[in-house]
Predict the 3D structure of the following.
Amino acid sequence: MVNFEYVNPKTLESVPALLSKKWDETMLLAGGTDLLDMLKERLVQPQRVINLKSLPGLSYIKNGAGLEIGALTTIAEIAEHSSVRKNFAVLAEAAESIATPQLRNMGTLGGNLCQRPRCWYFRNKDIVCIKKGGSKCYAVDGLNKYHCLFGGGPSFIVHPSDAAPALMALGASLDLLGPNGKENVALADFYELPVDNIRREHVLEPNQIITAVKVPQPAPGTKCTYLKFREKQSLDFAIVSVAAVLQMEGKVCRKASVVLGGVAPLPWRAEATEAELNGKTLTAEVIKKAAEAAVDKAIPMKQNSYKIQLTKVMVKRALEKLV
Ligand SMILES: Cc1cc2nc3c(=O)[nH]c(=O)nc-3n(C[C@H](O)[C@H](O)[C@H](O)COP(=O)(O)OP(=O)(O)OC[C@H]3O[C@@H](n4cnc5c(N)ncnc54)[C@H](O)[C@@H]3O)c2cc1C
């Protein structure tokens, strides 16, 4: 590894000034489960690493009018928290599907939301793909069975976080702190397709930090779940996942929020599915149509068309579970 300065900040307010205005010159270290791999593989070579764990007060879960989770809260704490399990089951189920107990004990929510893509071309230090300043996405003519169905081009990565689709379906927002102070951004506006800002996955500035995640309290009658299909049952990223949050009145769905994971460069809102569900009694026929609508606009690559059928089945199963 290349030498870097290691800083243990004492106050949260001091962090933005310690960060560079240029990506990857300085980096935040939370649980380190992604960052250390990136450092060891020499995918990033920062001059300064800022250890967030030296900061007090960023690890907490509060459930009052809504849910608030500090950025340094571990994935394990979220998965096990009784209020999260009771009132935000989609998030608890997503959290417990992440990696292994060891990784959930170390990995934090802020780090999970900002982890870099898992594309094998991106993760190979010898390949300068378009996300690393090169000119092409090697998945297009290469091995693309794990790549995206929606929102692809010029990069065809899939978003790796399980927490993100669940939080997006719940209407979450992020508290950010930067040189110009605090701001709150809807998670739906946080992630970006890799088009203009191709080397990043979100709108965070290099000198901004996520401090907390806020989730509104679900309306009465809300039911939710997270289903994830992965190749290895022991640990694995989602091939396809579905976060479904339905505001129900008996069998009638008043408002549906359905977000897919593993199929696009960002958590992908299944708008056509939501439109098929809103205001309808959830019969088997309605659910079938809603599941089919989820893949209406899919554009498969050479090796990933299997994800189309898989997505339909996963959406159908998630909806059936909630009726
Ligand atoms: C074998 C393996 C399997 C995995 N399986 C899954 C899986 O199934 N599902 C899944 O969702 N994830 C999975 N992961 C990813 C894992 O969940 C993430 O590595 C972890 O959540 C990152 O959290 P961290 O605190 O360790 O982040 P770090 O590694 O410390 O940081 C990750 C990135 O986020 C940035 N960052 C950290 N905190 C903040 C903050 N507060 N504000 C702004 N930027 C920040 C860092 O600078 C860095 O770029 C897996 C990882 C491994 C190694």
